[in-house]
Design a protein that fits this description.
- With 417 residues, the protein is of the alpha/beta class.
- Helix content is 37%, strand content 13%.
- A seven-stranded mixed beta sheet has the order 1-9-8-5-4-2-3, sandwiched between helices.
- It is globular and about 75 Å long.
- The chain starts with 25 loop residues before the first helix and ends with a helix.
- The structure holds pyridoxal-5'-phosphate.
- The site of pyridoxal-5'-phosphate (PLP) has 14 residues, from α4.
Length: 417
């Protein structure tokens, strides 16, 4: 701990790489090659996507799974299938990836933003009821970073107001809320298989549900509006081709074989690292509520309180990176502060509602604090490392904290005329 910071010329804590993502071997190659050689590359001809849908739905205790091209389209299709009408309102958190809110706009509905809790980084349920109006029809809790949202509170609110609950589980493959898999708790759950995700085929997404009518509607919308038993060129609803391809289905089938073991590792590493980092003054790892039975650690997130820690986030990130710890500040803005929402750049959507929308007025002090000053992200593949890897991460944070005065002096020198 006494050695000089790497940023100031010392030796880094870490010189070897953390696990890299994606992970694959000859089992993936064999499965994709078999699909390639079958010549059945489209979902309608092959059996790989169908097999994956069955397995993924089953893993969630769901009867239906509908795989799609990505986890943005899946959110939009779920809203369309739920029967939302033009310019209905949908509650979404302020701290999430763009798609949670733009899928709402692309369903021609109005995203209504609710701030997140500073401890959990998930939507603060105590703020939800104040955001509900007679036009509110749905709520999209995000299990951010892989930690289940407060579904007890969200389901209670949804029940009182008759809201449709669409879980955005894009970060939460394998996460468990109480005894139920994330994504299986509301009416429908949406997942992404984009490259960075804990289960990936490069791109892809899926909806899981136990609601037969909803599943049928999602399946129809993702398949050009076709209906079971209908003739080929008969289309019943506004829709398109959002089917996932067979090569991606084959890859997902082999990747899924690893997910359980990987999630157990990520969860155990996350618990260990959170305990170590919580002991450092000014660091606040994502707080794990008792209902979080398993965290999928798509990200390991924490907040840094610069005044208590003794160095700013930018300085700490720079010092950690020099110590060999990949890390970032995450999102630069809460969603309502994005130019897209500030300027209501909605293209052909929300033609009427946009005139009365003013996203500059959204109150989200917690999300703004996380984005502008406090949030730190470590990526999911680091969490697949050994406990010794977690020790390195913790030691790097401890070292940076121990040398905070040297960092402050360096910054003062840099500012001196
Ligand atoms: C929370 C969240 N929701 C939705 C998505 C959209 O998924 P995709 O990139 O597959 O469209 C993402 C990610 O990329 C995400 O992080």
């Amino acid at each position: 701990m006494t050695s000089t910071l790497a940023l100031l010329g010392g030796s880094p804590v870490r010189t070897t790489r953390f696990p890299v993502w994606p992970i694959f071997d000859e089992t993936d190659e064999a499965r994709v090659l078999a699909s390639l050689r079958s010549g059945q590359w489209g979902r309608l001809a092959g059996d790989q996507v169908a097999e994956f849908e069955r397995r993924f739905a089953e893993m969630h205790g769901c009867l239906y799974g509908i795989a799609m091209v990505n986890g943005t389209v899946s959110l939009r299709i779920a809203l369309m299938a739920a029967g939302l009408e033009a310019e209905d309102e949908v509650i979404v958190p302020t701290y999430t990836f763009l798609s949670t809110a733009t899928a709402v706009v692309e369903a021609n509905c109005v995203p209504v933003f609710v701030d997140v809790d500073l401890d959990t980084f998930n939507m603060d349920p105590t703020l939800v009821e104040a955001a509900i109006t007679p036009r509110t029809k749905a709520i999209i809790p995000v299990h951010f970073a892989g930690q289940p949202a407060d579904m007890d509170a969200i389901l209670a609110i949804a029940g009182r107001h008759g809201l449709f609950v669409l879980e955005d589980a894009a970060h939460a493959h394998g996460a468990i809320w109480r005894d139920r898999p994330a994504g299986s708790i509301g009416q429908v759950g949406s997942f992404s298989f984009q490259s960075s995700k804990n289960l990936t085929s490069g791109e892809g997404g899926i909806l899981v549900t136990n609601d037969e009518a909803l599943a049928e509607s999602c399946r129809s919308i993702h398949n050009c509006g076709r209906v079971p038993g209908g003739v080929w060129y008969e289309h019943h609803v506004i829709s398109g081709n959002y089917r996932l391809g067979e090569l991606q289905g084959a890859l997902l089938n082999s990747q899924l074989d690893r997910l359980e073991a990987q999630t157990i590792t990520r969860d155990a590493n996350g618990r260990y690292l959170a305990a170590r980092l919580a002991a450092i003054p000014g660091l606040h790892p994502q707080v794990r509520p008792e209902f979080c039975t398993r965290h999928s650690q798509h990200l390991f997130m924490l907040r840094l309180d610069a005044a208590t820690f003794g160095a700013t986030r930018a300085t700490v990130l720079e010092a950690l990176q020099a110590e060999g710890i990949p890390c970032s500040a995450g999102y630069g803005y809460p969603l309502p502060d994005q130019p897209l929402f500030r300027n209501r750049a909605f293209g052909p959507y929300l033609a009427h509602a946009r005139h009365s929308l003013d996203y500059t007025q959204v109150q989200c002090p917690n999300s703004r604090l996380i984005c502008s000053e406090q949030g730190i992200w470590l990526d999911q593949s680091m969490m697949l490392g050994t406990q010794a890897d977690m020790v390195d991460i913790a030691m790097a944070f401890e070292k940076v904290h121990a040398h905070r005065h040297a960092l402050a002096a360096r910054n003062r020198d840099a500012l001196a005329p």
